[in-house]
């Protein structure tokens, strides 16, 4: 019996050692610190919080896999209040005072534009987890790397769909910031290419609370399409005030807004039929997306991840891959790795040109149908057919 007891004990010991060998090593030593400013208040607060949620979940997964270079990974962040000047000051602090090891970019092109100037000065590679303005990659910077599709391509799907329906005229309303201006310019160029006439274009300042005067001008022209170079608050505002003023284009399309759950939450039935650009959707057949969506919903009260949340996760994944491939935190090695790396994250394909601008990832066009967001363009990713025309407000009451 003693011999049997010894054999059973030995078996359990071997099994325990085997299981220990299969488990990821527990990260030890001084944490690797990733620095970022995040828009947790101000006009980008909703999308900034989503991005932070994605980053937090990614770091949790990295540490569960054994960390980076055998060390745990922490996030050091500050609220940039959605202000470019605050973002620049905070990245200066992260680099010089906090002496973080790695950087992730902030949300929005305006804040990233200011923050990346600081990163460039100190030669810190920055993965731009929330910026799409092509203007940022036209400055000759060597340390800024994009994961988003460029702003000028955001509204391609809307114009392609409008042209296919025989629509002829477009009115463009946009915020006077780098991303929104880029999205508007891209829409205007695409409209010209497809034979649509831009009959109106007007800009508004960030944080605007009333666009009545602008929409009255649009109403007088009765365009077939209204394109908004917007963020979430203004896409909601334009929709509400268009209803109040009985502005009835055959198509509403916005750069940022309809692809976010809060758009439909804020507008209820008034969100129906509205088109919105998206960088990513949870129905895309990309590696790891299903598992990511399940984890995200479990962590954040059943909410589907927005493309901003997924951008946070994907940008963090990209940084993880770059560090592993470089085998080092040396910033020049990381810069070279990010410049040459071709990979896919849950966010999609990553490949950059000589300026650091994303060249591999497409954009998508969504529409709200029966309270749900569906992909309607491009055809190979579509989950539903676009509904045209948008009925007048009077027919929806």
Keywords:
single chain; 397 residues; alpha/beta; seven-stranded mixed β-sheet; 14 strands
Topology overview:
Layout: H1 2-22, E1 32-38, H2 45-64, E2 73-79, H3 84-96, E3 102-104, H4 109-121, E4 126-128, E5 144-146, H5 156-164, E6 169-175, H6 178-194, E7 197-204, H7 212-221, E8 225-229, H8 232-244, E9 251-254, H9 261-267, E10 275-278, H10 289-299, H11 307-326, H12 331-340, E11 343-345, E12 348-350, E13 364-369, E14 372-377
Parallel strand pairs: 1-2, 1-3, 3-4, 4-5, 6-7, 6-8, 8-9, 9-10
Antiparallel strand pairs: 10-13, 11-12, 13-14
Helix pairs in contact: 2-11, 3-4, 5-6, 8-9, 11-12
Detailed description of the structure:
The chain has about 400 residues and is α/β, with parallel strands linked by helices. Helices cover about 40% and strands about 15% of the residues. The protein is built from twelve helices and 14 strands. The strands form three sheets. Strands 7-6-8-9-10-13-14 form a seven-stranded mixed beta sheet, sandwiched between helices. The protein has a five-stranded parallel beta sheet with strand order 2-1-3-4-5, sandwiched between helices. Helix 2 packs parallel to helix 11, helix 5 packs parallel to helix 6 and helix 8 (about 230-245) runs parallel beside helix 9. The longest helix has 21 residues, at about 1-20. The radius of gyration is 23 Å and the shape is globular. The termini are far apart.
């Amino acid at each position: 019996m003693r011999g049997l007891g010894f054999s059973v004990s030995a078996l359990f010991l071997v099994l325990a050692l085997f299981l220990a060998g299969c488990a990821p090593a527990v990260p030890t030593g001084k944490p690797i610190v990733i620095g970022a400013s995040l828009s947790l208040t101000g006009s980008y607060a909703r999308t900034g919080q989503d991005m932070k949620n994605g980053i937090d979940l990614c770091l949790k997964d990295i540490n569960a896999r054994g960390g980076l270079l055998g060390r745990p990974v922490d996030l050091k962040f500050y609220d940039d209040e959605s202000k470019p000047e605050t973002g620049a000051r905070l990245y200066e602090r992260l680099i010089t005072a906090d002496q973080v090891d790695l950087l992730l970019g902030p949300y929005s092109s305006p804040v990233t534009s200011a923050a990346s100037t600081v990163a460039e000065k100190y030669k810190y590679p920055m993965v731009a987890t929330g910026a799409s303005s092509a203007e940022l990659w036209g400055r000759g910077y060597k340390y800024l790397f994009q994961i988003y599709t460029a702003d000028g391509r955001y509204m391609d799907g809307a114009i392609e769909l409008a042209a296919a329906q025989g629509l002829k005229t477009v009115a463009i309303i946009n915020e006077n910031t780098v991303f929104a201006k880029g999205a508007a310019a891209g829409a205007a160029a695409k409209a010209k290419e497809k034979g649509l006439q831009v009959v109106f274009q007007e800009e508004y300042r960030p944080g605007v609370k009333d666009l009545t005067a602008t929409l009255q001008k649009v109403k007088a022209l009765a365009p077939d399409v209204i394109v908004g170079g917007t963020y979430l608050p203004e896409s909601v505002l334009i929709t509400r005030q268009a209803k109040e003023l009985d502005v009835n284009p055959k198509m509403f399309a916005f750069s940022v807004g309809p692809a976010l759950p809060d758009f439909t939450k804020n507008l209820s039935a008034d969100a129906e039929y509205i088109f919105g650009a998206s960088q990513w959707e949870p129905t895309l057949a990309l590696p790891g997306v299903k598992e990511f969506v399940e984890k995200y919903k479990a962590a954040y009260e059943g909410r589907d991840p927005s493309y901003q949340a997924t951008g946070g996760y994907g940008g963090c994944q990209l940084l993880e891959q770059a560090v592993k491939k470089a085998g080092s935190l040396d910033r020049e090695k990381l810069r070279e790795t990010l410049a040459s790396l071709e990979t896919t994250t849950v966010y999609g394909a990553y490949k950059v040109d000589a300026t650091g601008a994303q060249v591999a990832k497409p954009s998508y066009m969504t529409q709200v149908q029966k309270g749900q967001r569906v992909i309607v363009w491009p055809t190979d990713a579509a989950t539903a057919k676009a509904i045209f025309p948008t009925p007048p407000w009077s027919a929806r009451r």
